[in-house]
């Protein structure tokens, strides 16, 4: 059954529920866990993501402008918070199905911080490590529940690993929209143009590759010796 919760959050990737002190500015923050309300937005907006490195979680808001976000700093009382780069997605639209830790589709966890409302988008399962000998690509693993929707005639950017694994372009850094990534030997980056609409599911544990220009390519984790 197709899930219909469309959200314009194209923040990259990933990470688990936040502690009350998550995005703290000295005061505790209440978390509303697994609320049956989808984040609002449309496919054309930029997602702004803060990562809680104390709990390895990612929280996202659409309620910022690029200029405001550039000037924003979490401050000395929130040293566990890292700003991720503002990102814009490749897909025609993206659906966020639920927050990690929620049982039912359509349930999301929220918190208020820095005068804005954030929702829990992903959990970091494994932190980044080099994916190639040249160090041009890094790989992390996250838990997330997303779907990418590509309309007929749109462009799907595909990264092919030397072992044949395929990764699909999810988002790119706004400031580097026209910067081409450096692709290591043995890897291939190409475009696929579908003749009909395609949905790519990125639910559960997902492998997240970060290219040299910051763009993110992802695929569902299929298990293996490093599981």
What does this structure look like?
The chain is mainly beta and 227 residues long. It has one helix and 15 strands; from the N terminus they run E-E-E-E-H-E-E-E-E-E-E-E-E-E-E-E. It has one helix at 66-71; strands at 6-7, 31-35, 48-52, 57-61, 81-83, 87-89, 93-96, 108-113, 116-130, 138-150, 156-160, 166-173, 188-192, 198-210, 216-220. It has a 15-stranded antiparallel β-sheet that branches. The longest helix has 6 residues, at 66-71.
Provide a quick synopsis of the model:
Helices cover 3% and strands 43% of the residues. It is mainly beta and 227 residues long.
What keywords describe this structure?
15-stranded antiparallel beta sheet, disordered N terminus, globular, single chain, 227 residues, 43% strand, mainly beta, 1 helix
Q: Spell out the helices and strands N to C.
A: EEEEHEEEEEEEEEEE
Radius of gyration: 17 Å
Give the overall average pLDDT.
86
Count of discrete alpha- or pi-helical segments spanning 4 or more residues: 1
- Biggest sheet character: 15 strands, antiparallel
* Structure class: mainly beta
Helix content: under 10%
| Number of strand elements | 15
Shape: globular
For the terminal residues, how far apart are their CA atoms?
Answer: 29 Å
Oligomer: single chain
Which regions have little confidence, pLDDT < 50, spanning 5+ residues? 1-27
């Amino acid at each position: 059954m197709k899930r219909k919760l469309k959200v314009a959050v194209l923040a990259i990737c990933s990470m688990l529920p936040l502690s009350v002190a998550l995005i703290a500015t000295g005061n505790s923050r209440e978390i509303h866990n697994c609320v049956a309300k989808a984040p609002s937005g449309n496919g054309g907006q930029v997602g702004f993501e803060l990562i809680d490195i104390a709990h390895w979680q990612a929280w996202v808001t659409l309620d910022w402008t690029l200029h405001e976000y550039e000037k924003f700093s979490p401050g000395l009382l929130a040293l566990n918070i890292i700003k991720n780069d503002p990102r814009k997605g490749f897909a025609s639209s993206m659906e966020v199905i639920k927050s990690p830790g929620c049982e039912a589709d359509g349930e999301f966890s929220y918190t208020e911080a820095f005068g804005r409302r954030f929702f829990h988008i992903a959990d970091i399962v494994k932190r980044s490590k080099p994916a190639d000998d040249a160090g041009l690509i890094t790989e992390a693993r996250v838990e997330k529940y997303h779907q990418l929707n590509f309309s007929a005639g749109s462009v799907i950017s595909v990264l092919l690993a030397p072992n044949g694994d395929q990764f699909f372009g999810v988002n790119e850094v706004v400031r580097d929209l026209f910067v081409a990534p450096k692709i290591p030997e043995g890897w291939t980056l190409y475009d696929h143009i579908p003749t009909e609409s395609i949905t790519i599911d990125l639910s559960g544990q997902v492998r997240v590759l970060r290219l040299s220009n910051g763009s993110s390519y992802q695929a569902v984790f299929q298990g293996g010796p490093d599981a």
